[in-house]
Write a structure and sequence with these properties.
Largest sheet: 7 strands, parallel
Number of helices: 11
CATH architecture of one domain: 3-Layer(aba) Sandwich
Organism: Myxococcus llanfairpwllgwyngyllgogerychwyrndrobwllllantysiliogogogochensis
Protein name: NAD-dependent epimerase/dehydratase family protein
CATH topology of one domain: Rossmann fold
GO molecular function: aldehyde dehydrogenase (NAD+) activity
CATH class of one domain: Alpha Beta
Shape: globular
Strand content: 5-15%
Oligomer: single chain
InterPro entries: Epimerase_deHydtase (IPR001509), NAD(P)-bd_dom_sf (IPR036291), NAD(P)-dependent_oxidoreduct (IPR051783)
Radius of gyration: 19 Å
Length: 326
């Protein structure tokens, strides 16, 4: 398989590139001119410089590809337009380039559970649920899906919607491990709030399956990890166990977390430095639940997550420590 990966220098992109190269696939990575490619060291791939917001750079990148894995996007932004320009309109420009190439490569778009918005604590989201994003990032990911599927008469399109992803190299959950390392276990008043999580290698397995399975075309799929949902508190407990620590519990009210997040956003605006805490993260943590079911992927594609989440957290903690991130 000849595969292009946008966003290849990110956490998921690195794991996907490694898996594809290990299979013997021909891997091309779309990277920004000054983009960090250090995580791709040791992986056999071709580098193409470009950006999903630069239409001229996309045509040569998609030329001759069998599959385009579209991972590029932004998770943080100061305005709604920041998210829409990259996550939504970047998807449109990529689809235009794929159509113009004339040979109909398959598009595997990496969406997000955030497009659906929070779930009920007692009912996980399924693919048939309506989009109900509650912040700009989720809104932009929902719009990216709409755009991608609007090309369904010209391109074979499939969408993967991962929940929160765990694994060595992840930045999104690092803050909680850092708290544990400092001896703090954060407990949010009014919880626990269920979280569906998944190991990065299970997400990679799902993406490759969607790139090859005929039943994937025209469909969106969740890829949940095995077992029951976790919670913020459970993730910290398992991280503490992996690190051999016994942090003290600090209970935080929703009001206090929101106030701290607003203050952090103010500091970010003034200094230009993105802090670990922000209003987007606070709203996510305070939602009643973020859960989804991968039953559709199991039924139509034969997808079965294989990585135990406690082991994922252990591997993450060990990797953070080895890299000096903790």
């Amino acid at each position: 398989m000849r595969a292009l990966i946008t966003g290849a220098g990110g956490f998921l992109g690195i794991w996907l590139a490694r898996a594809l190269a290990a299979r013997g696939d021909t891997v091309t990575c779309l990277l920004r001119p000054r983009g960090d490619a250090s995580g791709l060291a040791g992986i056999s791939y071709k580098r193409v410089e470009g950006d999903v917001t630069d239409a001229a750079s996309l045509r040569p990148a998609v030329e001759g590809q069998d599959v385009v894995f579209h991972l590029a996007g932004v998770r943080r932004g100061a305005t709604r337009e920041d998210f829409m320009r990259v996550n939504a309109e970047g998807t449109r420009l990529l689809c235009d380039a794929m159509v113009a190439s004339g040979h109909r490569p398959r598009l595997v778009l990496v969406g997000s559970l955030a497009a659906m918005g929070p779930s009920s604590p007692t009912r996980p989201h399924v693919e048939e649920d309506a989009f109900q994003p509650h912040e700009w990032y989720g809104e932009s990911k929902a719009e990216a899906e709409r755009i991608a599927f609007s090309y369904g008469d010209r391109l074979p399109v499939t969408v993967s919607r991962p929940p929160r992803i765990l694994g060595p190299g992840d930045h999104e959950n690092l803050t909680f491990f850092k708290l544990v390392k400092k001896g703090i276990r954060l407990e949010l008043v009014g919880g626990p709030r269920p979280l569906t999580m998944v190991d990065v290698e299970d997400v990679v397995d799902a993406l490759i399956l969607q790139a090859e399975h005929p039943n994937a075309v025209g469909q969106a799929f969740f890829c949940a990890g095995p077992g029951a949902p976790l919670s913020l508190e459970a993730v910290q407990d398992l991280g503490a166990k992996a690190l051999g620590l016994q942090p003290r519990t600090v209970r935080v009210s929703p009001w206090a977390l929101s106030a701290l997040a607003s203050a952090a956003d103010g500091v970010s605006r003034v200094t230009g430095k993105m802090l670990p805490l922000n209003r987007k993260l606070a709203r996510q943590l305070l939602a009643p639940a973020w859960t989804c079911s991968s039953a559709k992927a199991e039924r139509l594609l034969g997808f079965h997550p294989r990585r135990d989440l406690e082991d994922s957290i252990r591997r993450s903690a060990e990797w953070y420590r080895e890299q000096g991130w903790l």
